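Schema walk-through. Below, the input block comes first and the output block second. Nothing else is stored per chain. Lengths vary across the set, and this one has 259 residues.
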Amino acid sequence: MKQVIAMAIGRWKSLIVCVACSLTVGLGHAALFEDDEARQAILDLRQRVEKLRIDVEQTQSSGKDELGRGLLELQRQVELMRSDMAVMRGGNERLMKDLADLQQRYRDDQQSLSERLVNLEPTKVTVDGVEFSVGPAEKRDYETALAVFRKGDFPLAQTLFIEFLSRYPTTGYALTARFWLGNAQYATRAYKESMASFRTLIAKNPEHMRAPEAVLSVANCQLELKDAKGARSTLTDLIKAYPQSEAAIAAKERLASLK
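--- output ---
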């Protein structure tokens, strides 16, 4: 654009120079004409020069306007590009934030899933000298029933242990749960049911850690039921079967009091 304007202005300036030269020559030869004709010729030349000058200025003004419009358009395009870049930066920032949120959500979900899986995995426990694996719900239900028993709420503990044994018939807690169930039944004076629970423990595993106490508890139930003969027989069997146990010592004292 600038080159075009410069070329146009150059052409007009050349014309002005030529006219100026013509004017000078015309003035040199003015004497060849009569005064009126010479004056008229000079006036014509002056008018032509003035017209050329005006045309050049208009051309210059027009070129400036075109150049100004070009610069304004360029500036507008630059502003549009800046605006587009700002939008892209904003979009990138949102994408990065969304990605960060998704990554955090993924980590949280993974942790939550891991925790749930851990809660579902069996764990090893040792109860009354026996180690076995139990599920989380099984362990929770047993510990709940035992906690109720230790609080002294024997009717509720009796119900919870019965439900526990029904829900988990093959549980490793079975014999220990039978022992505590028998004690809860004894505490509620359900002596026959209590004897049945203790005898089940003894029959299933006479070597169980709680077996000597269970035999002694059977004898206590018999005494509560006024079966002194049966109690003596049970106490005698206890001393023979588990002579080194604390329950055997208690059985000897009990036998002595029955004579």
